[in-house]
Design goal:
This protein is an alpha/beta fold. Among the domains are: about 100 residues, Fumarate Reductase Iron-sulfur Protein, Chain B, domain 2; about 120 residues, Rossmann fold (3-Layer(aba) Sandwich). The protein contains 24 helices and eight strands. The strands form two sheets. The protein has a four-stranded parallel sheet with strand order 2-1-3-4. It has a four-stranded parallel sheet with strand order 6-5-7-8, with helices on both faces. Helix 4 crosses helix 7, helix 5 packs antiparallel against helix 7 and helix 12 packs across helix 24. Bound molecules: iron/sulfur cluster (2 copies). The site of one iron/sulfur cluster has 14 residues, from helix 4 and helix 6.
Amino acid sequence: MFASLDPTFRDSPDGAEALGILRSCVHCGFCLATCPTYQLLGDELDSPRGRIYLMKNMLEGQPVSRLTQRHLDRCLTCRSCETTCPSGVQYGRLVDIGRNYVETRVKRGPLDVFKRTLLKHVLPRPTLFRPLLAFGRVFRPLLPRYLRRKIPAYRPPGPWPQPRHGRQMLVLAGCVQPALAPDINASAARVLDRLGISLITAPRAGCCGALAHHLSDEGAAREAMRRNIDVWWPFVEQGAEAIVVTASGCGTEVKEYGHALRHDPAYSDRAQQIATLTKDISEVILEEIRDNELFNKKNKLKQSVSIAFQSPCSLQHGQKLGGVVEGLLERWGARLVVVPDAHLCCGSAGTYSLLQPGLSRQLQANKIAALESGHPDLILTANIGCLTHLASATETPIQHWVEWLDARLSEQHQSPP
Ligand code: SF4
Ligand code: SF4
């Protein structure tokens, strides 16, 4: 695609990157077939190619309106279009640049500003989010049904193994996950402990920055990244082998630290090293199980339950790890049912379910129908956002897959040989 950007923007780092991305698009339109918002709305401006045109026009200096902002806001940043695109267009990076550009030129309405400010300040701060969640749990029966189902029941995390191994890895605690589902990281710690790795947390690390990033507050996002790098770095210097992430949305963000801080001389090198060390929990387990008897194929767990795995967009499109968890689950004897349209987003997408509730609910209903079409006993996923979002709309039990694995390994350990 030919593009000639506005000279005042063209020579900036974002301008140079945007130009390269715009020029890589050949307008073939293959991406339309796998875009969830285009499937729902049927409007080319709500497709990847349409949004790319909108961004091209705007970055070339044409007037920007609320309409452009609305079409960009409706994008889930699911990156399904990137997986489909034969030309390797980095749509996710382009839409970040486009949104930041619009944000400085188009004023949002007061309600929109209020909602976005509230989300940006409450969700990443456990000191605010925890009491609100506790309040919600106490008054759950009095809340409207939709809100009630958004608040998961408390599940105790169980014991966290003492750091007893020479090999250590850091785990990202995150912001909302420790309050919503503290059992996920505890399960990961128990699974890795069986593999001879102690999982440790860095007490002052916090939100990965994704919340602020997706709300176009790049300053706050980079601040969160720098804080995490400062907190993790001494552990890395002492030999922590990896930064393990159990929420695939956060993993996608931390793997981008090197790119996000590439122009920051004080952080660029460390940010790149942190990004390289970052692994989704599935990558770590896949790497470690080869020679471990407990995880050997011969030790397949006997499973009678059937499972539907919901592969989050951040796992399959963001981190390009589609099929990894499914392979691990089958290795341990899980009976996986086919999930139609597994490439489509469930509508959670960070804060999307709160900012675009109508579209989000349609995607949620479609995803639940797809997951339940094979009549599974259980749904497993790999991201806290998808887990909470889907759990609010189904009676089928839903868990993070590492919780399921931890429970199966405990059963195997307790059962007589
Ligand atoms: S598939 Fe890729 S090259 Fe084709 S229109 Fe979509 S983004 Fe552009
Ligand atoms: S990121 Fe997802 S919603 Fe946005 S244009 Fe691409 S496929 Fe469509």
